[in-house]
Amino acid sequence: MGEAIRVAVVGATGYGGAELVRLLSEHPLAKVVIATSERLAGTRLSDDCPWLATDLILQSFDPESLLVDFVFLAQEAGFAMLHAPNLLRKSRVVDLSADFRLKDKDVYAATYKREWASPGLEVEPVYGLPEAVDRDTIRNATLVANPGCHATNTILGLRPLVENGLLDGIPVVDSKSGVSGAGRSRKETDYLFAEMTGNFKGYAVTGHRHIPEIEQEIGVRIRFTPHLVPESRGIYTTIHAPVKLGTTLEQIKAGYPTSTFVRVVDQIPSTKQVLGSNRVDIHVALDEHTGFAVVSVVQDNLVKGAAGQAIQNMNLMAGLPEETGLPIHGVWP
Amino acid sequence: MGEAIRVAVVGATGYGGAELVRLLSEHPLAKVVIATSERLAGTRLSDDCPWLATDLILQSFDPESLLVDFVFLAQEAGFAMLHAPNLLRKSRVVDLSADFRLKDKDVYAATYKREWASPGLEVEPVYGLPEAVDRDTIRNATLVANPGCHATNTILGLRPLVENGLLDGIPVVDSKSGVSGAGRSRKETDYLFAEMTGNFKGYAVTGHRHIPEIEQEIGVRIRFTPHLVPESRGIYTTIHAPVKLGTTLEQIKAGYPTSTFVRVVDQIPSTKQVLGSNRVDIHVALDEHTGFAVVSVVQDNLVKGAAGQAIQNMNLMAGLPEETGLPIHGVWP
Amino acid sequence: MGEAIRVAVVGATGYGGAELVRLLSEHPLAKVVIATSERLAGTRLSDDCPWLATDLILQSFDPESLLVDFVFLAQEAGFAMLHAPNLLRKSRVVDLSADFRLKDKDVYAATYKREWASPGLEVEPVYGLPEAVDRDTIRNATLVANPGCHATNTILGLRPLVENGLLDGIPVVDSKSGVSGAGRSRKETDYLFAEMTGNFKGYAVTGHRHIPEIEQEIGVRIRFTPHLVPESRGIYTTIHAPVKLGTTLEQIKAGYPTSTFVRVVDQIPSTKQVLGSNRVDIHVALDEHTGFAVVSVVQDNLVKGAAGQAIQNMNLMAGLPEETGLPIHGVWP
Amino acid sequence: MGEAIRVAVVGATGYGGAELVRLLSEHPLAKVVIATSERLAGTRLSDDCPWLATDLILQSFDPESLLVDFVFLAQEAGFAMLHAPNLLRKSRVVDLSADFRLKDKDVYAATYKREWASPGLEVEPVYGLPEAVDRDTIRNATLVANPGCHATNTILGLRPLVENGLLDGIPVVDSKSGVSGAGRSRKETDYLFAEMTGNFKGYAVTGHRHIPEIEQEIGVRIRFTPHLVPESRGIYTTIHAPVKLGTTLEQIKAGYPTSTFVRVVDQIPSTKQVLGSNRVDIHVALDEHTGFAVVSVVQDNLVKGAAGQAIQNMNLMAGLPEETGLPIHGVWP
After folding, report:
1. Residues in a beta bridge with C201
2. CA-nearest residue of chain A to D47?
3. SS3 state at C266
């Protein structure tokens, strides 16, 4: 290889940021040169993240000093829209938050309870779901909005039905997520081990934040409820979609193209089969009893639902094959 | 108390049977006098079930010698329909299998891949879901069919919408079950700890066996898919039901009566809050975005979904208050 | 029954306190009439603890108004020694904290980093491990110090070897605890579900706080390290004790008396077999290869290790059979 | 790279074999060309192992057709000693079973209840624990016995104390293992998810099979008991070793050299911090209260305890840097 792609990870001690550091360490052509944390600047990343056997020393975020090719922003909503314009002068940016996902700023404000403002932003953010958008748009982007985890599953599972005109009514999306989706700093009682182990619960029964993002990308209204599974990683999304009378399973399946990271599988999937992998596995069935397509989609929310997809976007932006350095097999058992 | 109700548990080393023994040991008016196991007859129940600190010695099943007031049958489908007629000469029977749940014998045959036959049966089995049927029918029954676990949740959550004429389309029932539902003798790879821990998966995406039972009891067609949760006990059922235009949340809620074991709760529930309890907690919401009622129902599949409900039925049949000896609080954390 | 024993639970929303409420609700002769929480006074206990189907309204702690027979103190160290003297004027007290466990106040200060002071205390606290001390002492006590969870297992497993003079060197006590032992308000990253699931870790490798308590009760020095198991409840303590040359397994076993709640079992135990039960199961082996007795002890840390044992003490203090109202079977699976 | 190292994995659908396939797929210089399974020959490996996104078709084991550079044997004890001599004519062999670990054949027979016989074997097997033996011996070996998982932890944790002459009595080794160690075909009730979740239990309290292997490599007698943790992967070994009077922590620590895959860490470790990694993290403490060193060692039993260490051995045998293609970071959370 020539010179490595120089990368900064902003917010390196959260689950998304630390997963970026982990995955990029296996990337043959990229290197994390800066990892930031306000809380722990000056200490070793491995002290706070003992699973990372790295010598990186955490730094404060200083946009001026970030002389890198790519910046990954792994912060809460609100951070990226403030800092991206400045960072874009020197680097290309992949943002893992929701700040640049929604085209309609009123929807953003209603969804995230915060006015949208990104003073000085001169580029159009690109929604970075490679298997659902034109990859050339991502290749040419300087600012990519990395999709939400539930949104990734839902769009990949539902969009083919919409595009092929098979949908006939409101699809029900029942999604189940591992607890790591709540992040590493969410220390409410609900996320304590003792509370969540051997437990399964719903949340945001109506009005989840990913609904507008999904509806923007697929163009139809959805019924959506997420749930918490007593597992760390993994999202399983079951889509119950009413289809037009006479639709066959073959017609449905024909709409699902297979790519390196998005596969149609014959067996009903499980979340663990993609743990640590950038794959999404999709299973499609037709319920003739009711006339619904039933689409089951699995992902690792920290890989394809966050850090892995971010790196896939970086690969495209850097002109590399999209699969470069990304795991394809799951870690099992 | 006067003389205790004498009880036999047929199939005492499976999860349902052992749970009957456990719960009945806390019942003030009943006593397990016979516990059977073909495989382990002659050995102590506590050898195979070390969580039970009991002196019971397992016996072979011998219908002639069962001089008891109540027989609980906790066996695979096919056993009860063969033996119930004989047992009913001396005892009243609560069957935890599916043998007596379906009124239409052709549906039984199609569902369980076995002809239905119960030679000599002279009584009409009663479907034992106390909160959904006329309790007097159960009180007077000699043979009660204990409902399926997914069926219990779905009927309790969906029936009020049907009865009140609010439903407007096919309801989607997305159910999530703990692994104990598979039973103690299911030793396929899928149920190994190493495979299932940190994992979530679908099964029977279409055509699950509880569908006919549910549709029989509520009278409408349903879209149903169950899933496996990495927890031992607990079922969480999310019902997404399209409701008529203009339906309000108050109208929906009004249809859900509260009883000792079936409660409408304000917080989104979790399976563990009813672990070890005979309670079902139901949460009701209205998604105005799509016009769906979203009903979330939790149970412990071995208590309200099996052994606890069986005892509740026995209580009614014996003329006792239905809650006698049954736990109401969950074991947490 | 005559009049119920009136009970107050101080600190009812923590794991120990809530477990007291749960267990006492099944007690035939006692009734929780007051449940306190400073943080949530005025709200329903069931709002914060949705597993408890109770109408109790939380109150502030007010020693003057506590007109009850028994007060259970389920608070952090430091609270009981301050308030017990006042409470003892009207009630008998069982304290679940460490405040009254250590006879040597210097040891208390060194262990808990806090001077010991209980102004006005006029009685001698009794260490409430019924199977290891003279039960009459407990029966006559007005203030009982409920033992620590690791201490309960270790004392029950090790004391017989000491008393029978079989020990020949320093015993190694390697204990493994479920995460609920950390309590409900410990919201450090370490106790988050995502961090602890599928994980096992040591803590307090040397110098754990239960060591002085154990050594006080058995009179010998021990090597002790606890660990965290990815389970909510349960402690498994493995005691590797060097025994005198020529010691036989029969000699060892002979020292372990069986009682309702402490049993010697033939099979290697597991923590779940006592989940929800007040039992301790003990397995004894002799390693002839090295001359060590290997004693394995299991408990539910919230029952025999906390709330259950507290009720067992209350039973004795109230002149009841010690097992009154306490579960003997485990909840499985 | 030049031509890839051609590899056969014999027994590819077990946990060890499948992990070899997964890890080798990320190896830049090796390629699995043959994967065998008697039971499933002719089918896709990914059908039985859906986490592996591979096109490999399973074959029957046919020693004659194995034209590869390295054969990994991932079979039950007894298989390797039968087939290795034949395989060694064409390939170098790394055996993951116990067949070639024990030098004393009588000990093998007593431990594995099977006579040791490897007709035609002409080479001396090498015990392949790179950080504990002379790496050149491994480099020159044609047949390597891959160490046991508990043995790897124990030897790495205990050997420095022995070599430096600090040990003063029998060390107690209390080891805790994830359930994957039992293998994928062990379908006893004990390994069912419902039984093992939220559970912790001992096994082989005395006489575990790894004891002779450990004692052979370190030269001292040990007290050893393993336990099962409700996690899939990971071994945590706590070594309580009495040390000579006056030994300091610095003296102890000085004996533990750090290498790429074996690190001495300052924080008490957890199993998950090395999940998916070939690392072993070791923490050392001195208990001045009793005069014991307390050494805590963590590994992923399927990586450093099996497939990863096997690849590390292959790397050495092939003249590559030992870390080639092996993960160093853990998968968290």
Report:
1. C228, D270
2. A267
3. coil
Q: Decide: B155 and B132 in contact? Cβ < 8 Å.
A: yes
Catalytic residue among B98, B149, B158, B274: B149
D79 backbone φψ class: left, alpha, beta (φ>0; ψ -120 to 50): alpha
Bigger pLDDT: C57 vs A66: C57
**What is the phi-psi region of residue C169: left when phi exceeds 0, alpha when psi lies from -120 to 50, beta otherwise?**
left
ipTM rounded to 2 decimals:
0.96
Tokens of B123: 């009584």
Q: Are B191 and A257 in contact (CB under 8 A)?
A: no
- Tell me the average pLDDT across B250-272: 96
Alpha-carbon span B167 to B164, nearest angstrom: 8
Per the structure block, which two tokens stand in for B88? 């009913």
Subunits with 3+ Cβ pairs within 8 Å of C are: A, B, D
Residues B13 and D55: their CA atoms lie apart, in Å, by: 43
Three-state SS for D80?
A: helix
Q: Which of B271, B61, B254, B84 is nearest to B176 (CA)?
A: B271
Which of chain A's residues have a Cβ under 8 Å away from the Cβ of B231?
Answer: 197-200, 230
Which residues from D are below 8 Å from C286, CB to CB?
A: 206
pLDDT digits (tens, 9 = 90+) for D197-242: 999 999 999 999 999 999 999 999 999 999 999 999 999 999 999 9
pLDDT of residue C2: 60
* Closest listed residue to residue D98, CA positions, set D13, D212, D175: D212
Residue D320 C-alpha, separation from nearest chain C C-alpha, in angstroms = 33
Strand residues in chain C grouped as ranges (E): 5-10, 30-36, 70-73, 92-95, 126-127, 143-145, 172-177, 201-202, 223-228, 235-242, 262-264, 280-287, 292-299
Residue A245 binned pLDDT confidence (cut-offs 50, 70, 90): very high
Angle between helices D105-112 and D210-218 (to 10 degrees): 150
Q: Give the chain A residue nearest C192 (alpha carbons).
A: A192
Contact predicate C321/C315, CB 8 Å: yes
Directed axis angle between helix B210-218 and helix B105-112, to 10°? 150
Tens-place pLDDT, residues D152-187: 999 999 999 999 999 999 999 999 999 999 999 887
Q: How many helices (H) and strands (E) does chain D have?
A: 10, 13
Query: With bands split at pLDDT 50, 70 and 90, how would you rate the model's confidence at B2?
Result: low
Phi-psi region of D219 (alpha: psi -120 to 50; beta: other; left: phi over 0): left
- The domains found in chain C, sorted by start residue, are 5-147+304-317 (3.40.50.720), 149-301 (3.30.360.10)
* Structure confidence by residue, pLDDT tens digits, C173-206: 999 999 999 999 887 899 999 999 999 999 999 9
- B13: chain D residues, CB-CB within 8 Å: none
Tokens of A188: 């409410």
The Cα C140–Cα C317 span in angstroms is 6
Q: Do D193 and B232 touch (CB under 8 A)?
A: yes
Chain C nearest C-alpha distance from A217 (Å): 30
E strand segments, chain B: 5-10, 30-36, 70-73, 92-95, 126-127, 143-145, 172-177, 201-202, 223-228, 235-242, 262-264, 280-287, 292-299
Q: Within an 8 Å CB–CB cutoff, is residue D51 touching chain B?
A: no
Query: What confidence tens digit (pLDDT) does each residue in A126-141 have?
Result: 999 999 999 999 999 9
| Residues D274, D234 contacting (CB under 8 angstroms) | yes
* B195-207 residue pLDDT tens: 999 999 999 999 9
- Assess A271–B contact: CB distance below 8 Å, yes or no: yes
Is the whole model's pTM more than 0.90, yes or no? yes
H helix intervals, B142-243: 149-163, 193-196, 210-218
Cβ contacts of C246 within 8 Å, gap of 6 or more: none
